[in-house]
Amino acid sequence: MLIRMTSEPEHGQGAGVPDAFQRLWTPHRMAYIQGENKPTGPGAGDGCPFCEIPAESDEDGLVISRGAHVYAVLNLYPYNSGHLMVVPYRHVADYTELDPAETVELAELTKRAMTALRAASGAQGFNIGMNQGGAAGAGIAAHLHQHVVPRWGGDVNFMPVVGATKVLPQLLADTRKMLADAWPH
Known about the structure:
By secondary structure, this protein is α+β, with helices and mostly antiparallel strands.
């Protein structure tokens, strides 16, 4: 991941008239905007990343914890450092499709995620939820996933509001290790 801050005006082809603005370049976000890692269809065999991640090592898949029915994984395009998701192994789209054991384990891993995030990063609050269906904002609507986003007092600043950019102070691999080490067993 390359993040470049500059106080020098941009010069070059297509840059326009130089100005006095500083720029924080976050080219890794373009992959998400252009649909990288999006499934090609609704089936489990259509490139669903949530179906493919469990076959990877924890480090390569950014998996924090694995249960019998669900697993916890870092969000590859996080809203905040530590933003993770709790995901059933089974390819289901809707919360009502979970069986009782999946429902219980999803809730239990969510609680463990909160405990780990508090221990590892001092999270002061959380946004927890799932977007059901594309119309509700689900990026990967075909495979249910619950977001757990840690929050801290004052963590919203001008960057997301003015620049549509979130500054993340830690690499995903480092965040994964920190949370895996703090995960309650």
